[in-house]
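tool_log.txt
---
The assistant was asked to compare two proteins side by side. It first ran the structure predictor on the initial sequence, then on the second. Raw inputs and outputs are pasted verbatim so the downstream comparison step can read them without reformatting.
(1)
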Amino acid sequence: MSYPFIRTTYGRRMAALALDWLACYAIVAAFSGGIDQMSPNHSLYVLILFFAQTWILITLQGATLGHRIFGMKTVRFEDGGPLSARQGLIRTLLVVLVVTAVTFDDNGRGIHERLSGSVLTRR
């Protein structure tokens, strides 16, 4: 069976991830009174916000802010349809465990994508 999706590059993936993380960091910093007012405990807030926005946006829209800017979307591997809430949750939990987001197979799918039945592809 041929691979039916347009592969995205590692660089695009990492740029989108960095943009999403920075957006969450900026939001937490803004609500904390600025970067200079942030304590190490605020890292947990950034992580929680990153998790929530990624799960919600991947499940409802198929893409985070970073994915949209870099021309990508997340779909079900089996048929290219939208992810279920369960698939989005599995994928997001595994992305938060960063090591799964930087290991890829021959088709360019990360462990988080294989275990959730998803694929990040070009729009």
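(2)
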Amino acid sequence: MKNCDHYLDLAKIKRDLPSDYALAKLLGVSPSGITNYRKGRSHFDDATAIKIAHLCEIEPAEILFAMQVERAKNDEARAVWSGLLEKFSKGFRWLALPANACGALVPQV
């Protein structure tokens, strides 16, 4: 399961940022806030999740679902959110099918 740490690293890579400090500045959060996300002491709020999605060039709903999985208080709730994330991901992959050189649609693997 992708967590805050994964998305923070992806944002740094996509934006070629040298440090968590630079990422914190770009997001408008404190460096200790980034540390708390990385250590699992806190999770992105919706506004931060959407900012990170834009930095990562991914669908914001993916991160919003992932944060709900992380916030879930019990295994049953976590399983429900994980299932919804998986359904969303499968549906989104089929909506974004790339065309091959002949113009035919081919599923992503």
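---
observation on (2): The mean pLDDT is 84. The chain has one domain: 4-95.
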